[in-house]
Structure formats: structure tokens, C-alpha cells
Amino acid sequence: MKPATFRDVTATHVPRAPDLHALDIALADVDGDGDLDAALAVEGGANRLYLNDGRGRFTWREGAFGDQPHDTEHVRAADVDRDGHIDLIFVAEDDRVHQLFLGRGGGRFTDASDRLPAQSEGNGLAVGDVNGDGLPDIVVGNSSKGHDARNSLWLNDARRPGWFIDATATHLPDIGNSAQGVALADLDGDRDLDMVVATEAPPTRLLINDGKGRFTEASDRLRQVTPLETREVHVLDANGDKRPDILLLNLTSNAGKWDKNPQARLLIQDAAGRFIDETARRLPANRFSSWGGAVMDFTGDGHPDLIVGAIAVPGFEPSQLRAYVNDGAGRFRDATTETIPAATTGRSWSMAVGDVNGDGDDDLFVGGWGTQARLLLGPATRRRN
Fold this sequence. Notes:
Helix content: under 10%
Mean pLDDT: 95
Shape: globular
Structural class: mainly beta
């Protein structure tokens, strides 16, 4: 099926902020009106809340998360205290100020950051129930050197939902891994959440959950062919075999000189639970660096396609967003020209997928470093099929 074109509605639907460092976005209904609002993790500024009017047009509610600037890297949304309102977790890198905002309804929040048990140099964030008690827990990927680079695991306190217990020392291996991204997913088919950690210094890490939230390293299952500086990891069933695979988005360097190969890498899981790098025959070649991307079925054929951010390095130059179409067997072709409007350029960072305008099709909210965050309304796959 030939993919339809995304519609870039940034100019009319997103508050203008051409120099904002919006490094991550979480889409969630924070005001209870049935549509998806957007929380933005902002580096060097106050985090932002954009409220949706139901048609995908967003308005900035200033001061929703205070007015203090932080070096925020990531944001995730979940109801951590079981009160029926969406809460938001932010993690920061250089100033190490992690924040928890509890939703109070109507898009209002209370700062409950004192419920987070530690600070760290956070560069990755994932939220999910790792110990099977029905409450969302928090994993922070840390990027300092040495022992301080050990990741953090904070378990939601079943006796006081919305308060967190630091289980790092007892539940995570003592690994300094220079984390930049974290994904939680059931990678071994035992119905609990395992962990993949994207690292700026090789290797990528794979941690297996015992079902109670205790993780052991199994990175030897990752068969990587070259050292990587990875910024983001995604888990998807690329080839339709019902086994999760791993996508790694990589840099040549952090906006410096040419160093490592920034080619995006796709690791396919085999029947023995090993993840084999099959990039050469499955992904388009790239020489750009990628700080973020998204998995979404924008062709509507039931197979996951890919959106990949692109920045030219050396130079740190804005580039056009890329779109890769899945043939259904896990082989992707570059469909950017027919899918992404030519004007959709920037220093694209992490992204969020969701139906923001209520038409039944997923849309794409793209963060940006020092360039305008962008909203692309998704192709009308439901109406075409």
C-alpha cells in the first residue's frame, strides 16, 4: 500500500516557540475532557503543558509545572497514585532535579517531587509495573561516570500509592552504563517487563526481570556488530513473528566530529531469545545522527512503521524527518518523499504518538532542540482501509 502524506499543522496548532529545547513529549488527557494534551520536557526552561481543544489545536497553560528552569530530558505520564488523574514524571540531567507532578483534575497539578527518593544525572526514563502489583514504577537511566551511572529503580509503594521506594541496590545490577534511554517490555515471553538500556558508551544493556522487579544482566543475548553511541531504544515486532525486536537510534557523536557509525540498527530476536543485528538487509542506510524517533503504523496495514529524526553531524544542522515503511516482514524502505512534507525540518528529538484530533488515526508530536516542536496529523489510514 502506498502511504499517504502526513499533514504538518504546526503553524496553526502548536504555540510558536522556534528556539525552545523541547526534548521529549508525553501525550495524555490531563484535564479529563477526553482528548490528548501534551506535556513537554524542556531543557534550560520551565517544563510546559499544552492543552488540546479536542481538534488538535494546543494552547500553552503557563506555569502548570512552575516557572523554574531545569535541564529536563524526559517526561512520562501515568496515574501513579490511583486517584483517576494523570500524573507526570520529569527527569533532568545536569542539575539533577527530577520532578513528580500529581494531577488534580482540570489540568491542575501539585508538585510532589519530594516523593521521589533520589536525584541523579538522568538521561533516560521509563514507567511501568515491573513487580506485578498493578502500580506504575519508575526507572531512571543515569549517565554519570563510574558507580554514579548505575540506573535507578523506584518501586511504587503499595501501602501509599504515589510514594516511591528506592530499590536500586537490591533490584538492579551494579553497572555503570552511561544510559541515554530506557525501554520496558516483555522481551522473553514470561509476561513481565524486562529492560533495554540505550547507552552512549557501548554496549547496549539487556536486563531480564524475575517477575518481582529484580533484574539480572543478559546483555550477551544482544549480538551487535559495531560500537554505538545510542540515544533512544524502541521495542517492536518488526517482522510479525510475535517476538519483540529492538530498534536503536544512534549518533556519530554528540554534535561533535565524525566518530561512530550513526546508522540506525535493528536487532531481530531469534527462536533462542538472541537479538541478531540484521540492519543491513532490513533498514535504509543513513549517515545522519538521530536523537529520537517513533514506532507507528502510519500505513494502516497492521505492521509497525518507523519515524526517524535526522540531524546532520558534524554541523548539528536541522534536517527533514524520515519515514520508513514496513513491508510486513520487517524490511523497511525510505518513504520520506511521499510521506513527510518537505517543510518538516528541524533538530528533531523524542516524539509522541497519539490521536490528538479525534479522527481515529494516530498523529505525531515531534520535539526539537532549538527548533520549533512540530505536529503532524497522521494519514487517514482508518478511512482509507
